[in-house]
Write a structure and sequence with these properties.
three-stranded antiparallel sheet; 310 residues; single chain; alpha+beta; globular; 14 strands
Length: 310
């Protein structure tokens, strides 16, 4: 009996120390606009100074990522690829290569529902919705012809990319934000603050739970209703048209484009994807928002350990 007491004593002391440590933490919240949306960080730290330093570094990391992957920034790495990779093979950075490779896997697993080569279509529909003018069918066909992922050549041995058609344009909006959210959390965690949640326009990564909690309580919208879920070291991302659309001949076309036919989808149901990290959740939500074949959906879920919240 004395031996058993001695063996469990360190565990008791560790539990008590952890409880006291958690009780000394305070909640802090910070928000900034990045990547065209509101990023918010909620964290538990032992001082306001530590919390502010962590959030500042996390937001700086998000902006670094935006300068790599934005198709709005003319001198971003992504924009440079779109502008020059038809004329020459281009070597890309490590983080660009990582997302290009992951995008290639999602394209294959989704049977083309996820396609970062759809930049010409994105540009066409952005302008159409802004002006509330339905694109001409000929323009859609022309943009679709320049949006084939099969016309993108990736060379793993050299870490290079080449675009096979002129005026192709990459758009990583369906995956880069999730990556930025993950990186923001990792930045905070590396500064010794693992109890944090990062929200980027409704896509969320939740780390270690708040003190004395079973997880981070997150509200998701589903079929016109709301549902509470609890997240710990995992992510949820949403996709669905609620306000950006164009109406033509009594049909509402969403800003969410099906890259397989070039048109905005007409049945934009709210999709919530849950995954081990936000880059997977973001890409999965993007793909699942235009997928309708149940077998394809199941295959995608199994391939990336993601799940639809139903």
């Amino acid at each position: 009996m004395p031996l058993k007491l001695i063996s469990i004593l360190p565990l008791i002391l560790l539990f008590q120390w952890n409880s006291l440590s958690a009780q000394s933490l305070s909640k802090y919240e910070f928000s900034e606009v990045h990547m065209g949306t509101l990023f918010s960080i909620v964290l538990y730290a032992d001082s306001a100074e530590a919390a502010k330093q962590a959030s500042d570094r996390a937001f700086s990391r998000v902006e670094e990522i935006n300068q790599v992957f934005s198709d709005y920034v003319e001198d971003s790495e992504l924009s440079q690829i779109s502008q020059y990779a038809f004329y020459k093979e281009m070597k890309v950075s490590d983080e660009m290569w990582a997302l290009l490779s992951l995008s290639d896997k999602f394209y294959r697993a989704s049977n083309g529902a996820f396609n970062i080569a759809m930049g010409p279509l994105t540009k066409l529909w952005r302008r159409a919705i802004r002006r509330q003018e339905m694109p001409q069918e000929s323009d859609i066909k022309e943009a679709l012809a320049r949006s084939n992922w099969s016309d993108v050549s990736l060379d793993k041995s050299k870490q290079t990319i080449r675009l096979k058609k002129e005026k192709m344009r990459l758009d990583m909006g369906g995956i880069a934000k999730g990556y930025a959210i993950d990186e923001a959390y990792q930045t905070v965690k590396q500064l010794g603050i693992p109890r944090a949640l990062v929200d980027g326009g409704g896509d969320i990564f939740a780390g270690e739970p708040p003190p004395n909690s079973k997880g981070w309580k997150v509200m998701v919208k589903l079929n016109g209703k709301t549902q509470d879920i609890y997240l710990t070291n995992e992510a949820v991302a949403s996709s669905g048209s609620t306000y950006r659309f164009i109406e033509h001949n009594d049909v509402m076309y969403s800003h969410i484009i099906d890259p397989r036919n070039g048109y905005g989808i007409t049945n934009p149901n709210r999709i919530n994807a849950r995954a081990p990290n936000c880059v997977l959740a973001d890409a999965a939500a993007t793909a699942l928002s235009v997928m309708t074949v149940e077998e394809d959906i199941k295959s995608l879920e199994e391939s990336f350990e993601v799940s639809l919240i139903k």
